[in-house]
């Protein structure tokens, strides 16, 4: 009896449990071709989340094929729940551009179960696309490029009134001007708001004061690259929230942000008593010792699970102190599932303490000197539930000075980790960890290999907003 026939004899009820572990779209597409039973279980997973990224091969061609499929096969379009468009063909002849746009509009209309849409390719989001998305009855999550620049009318945006999650990338002045009325229209449902800028002066304390009365149901609030926002503007938003924040991101805010005052206000009001995730950045002008003291006070009463910290931009002068890491671990180690450090040096002793005392830790992202790599494996081995690790080198002299770590060295480190580790990254490289058992001279031997990262979603450590 062949292996295939044995597999086909499995109860059909087991197929969904097996297929749900297949993440690569090309593999799911292959499963759809096996037989009708495989098709029935694989095709919903294939179309449930659709991604187009700029680094995909022939990504612009894939856009055309995707929307032609969604336009011509409504039964497949109905399966789409998440649509991510991060690349889109531009500079086309007028006739071809019109054809692709019509395919997009028809395809979106057929996505009657669409719940989340990301459309961030600059210049590809138009008023007609927005007007079509407004009609999607179940759309609750929206992430869009905020540079409207005559491509779309910002006055359309407040018509998205049922949003639970909203992310604006590089918003222009008119888009920011629409935000107060937009949040007013979504105040019953909006729980998650992200404003992601490069270094924009458009998002100010005044803007946050304007939206504050309308965000009483907010639970997640992330600000990136907003140097005109101080503790006063952020407090205006947080003090208006009914239940308290669950996730908070403060990246690249004003140098005038007073962490001591902000911490005192939050503690007095119990604003962060539900906080599970915090993302912080510190600039090179800030006194790190005082800042760390105020951060510890800010988080003292929070049931923290995710801790993220980095410097602003590419500055590498700050070093995360061992005492600060120990204090974070002492206060929150029993709950922390993610400890993430970017662009800040840290000692191997601090990493060892994190791994030893954060007993439920699943994700660890760290910055480590080359000389400490040999000591990393035994540290990681102390973490019993660790699933994902990412190691970055300090970028003191520029990324071109960071060596491409050898495959053998990474495998050597992974071999020392617990079997729970499924993903390992070094600088810009991310691997899946594969384990297999080989019988040698009557003894079972565990083989560890690294394979390419297969998940179509961006790895957590590379996201702009880390939640």
Number of strands: 16
- Structural class, by secondary structure, is alpha/beta
Mean pLDDT across residues: 89
Main sheet characteristics: 16 strands, mixed
Oligomer: single chain
Radius of gyration: 24 Å
Instruction: Tell me what portion of residues adopts beta-strand conformation.
Output: 15-25%
State the separation between the terminal residues, measured CA to CA: 49 Å
Q: Count up the helices.
A: 17
Poorly predicted ranges: 397-402
Helix content range: 25-40%
Strand order, largest beta sheet: 1-2-3-4-5-6-7-8-9-10-11-12-13-14-15-16
Shape: globular
Which features characterize this protein?
467 residues, alpha/beta, 16-stranded mixed beta sheet
Helix-strand blueprint:
Layout: H1 3-8, H2 15-19, H3 25-32, H4 36-48, E1 49-52, H5 59-72, H6 74-77, E2 82-85, H7 94-110, E3 116-119, H8 127-134, E4 141-145, E5 165-169, H9 173-185, E6 192-196, H10 205-211, E7 220-226, H11 231-238, E8 247-253, H12 259-269, E9 277-282, H13 288-298, E10 306-311, H14 322-332, E11 338-342, H15 348-357, E12 363-367, H16 376-380, E13 388-392, H17 407-415, E14 423-426, E15 429-440, E16 443-452
Parallel strand pairs: 1-2, 2-3, 3-4, 4-5, 5-6, 6-7, 7-8, 8-9, 9-10, 10-11, 11-12, 12-13, 13-14
Antiparallel strand pairs: 14-15, 15-16
Helix pairs in contact: 3-4, 5-7, 7-8, 10-11, 11-12, 12-13, 14-15
